[in-house]
Structures are given as C-alpha cells and as structure tokens.
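Both lines are retained for reference:
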Amino acid sequence: MGPGIVTARRIVRTAPVTPGAVPAEVVWAFRDRRHRVGDHRIWQGTADKGTTPVLYVDDVRYPARHVAWVLHHDTEPVGLIKAGCGARLCVHGPHLTDDISRQRERLLYAALHGVTLAGPCPAGTHDLAEHGYVRPSGAIECRGCDNARRRTKSLEGARAT
C-alpha cells in the first residue's frame, strides 16, 4: 500500500458472548490485550468512543466486558456491564457489574442504612424497588427520575444550539 492510503476494518458481525461458547482464539486475544495495574486489568485494545472496550477477532466484534463477565461468572450478564471499581477501561471480572448486581448493591446499601426501598418514588412515577437508591446523606432518590431529568436537559441543550 502506498502512503496516505487508509484501510478500514470490515466488520462482518457482532458476536454474541454466551457461557461456554467463547472461542479459544477470542479468549487468548482477550488475555493478550489486558494490562495489570494494581488490582485492575486495564484494556489495551480498541475502545469504541474511548470508553467501551471491544475485541476484533477474524472481522468479528466482541464486547470485551462481555467476554470478561462470561469468563469470570460463567453466566450471561443482564443489561449494561460497567466497571464497578471506577477505572474507566477495567475489564477485570470481579470488578464488573451488571444491572442485577448493581440493584442488589443498592438494596443492600439501603438495608444497612435502615431504609426500605419499596413503593413509588417521591415523584410517584417509578417503583423504588427497581429504580430507588439511598444517598450517603440518607435521602431516597430515584434513578428513573434522574435519567428523565438528564434527558430533558440534554434535549433542551440540543434545541438551544
């Protein structure tokens, strides 16, 4: 290829990552792209939008956190997988959380502070058992209402420009 010629990676498909079905070449490629930093495993490969670790093997896209989750937990994650440790590109299995584990942590935190997350939220639009959380101050908040406020602000900002 000559200078100035840019090649684009052809993506055939995004592969599902299911327990017991992660191909060996994907496992080895995944392990080669992690770097140990303290207790974290920081992703050294490609990251979509700079925050979503992805792995490409034979023109197939694999979400790196899904691979890490399946290898560590041997189950299918539920919803969005995040690094619960706060490290932006951490793909260490024990540090990852899915929707179920985050909800479990919120309920446990509330119980430890003597708060029961049940019934409607303060605005009366969401169920606290699903969307509720407790702030360190003890105030009960609703993620559903928080997300709705965030969406409204972003839409107002988009209209202003």
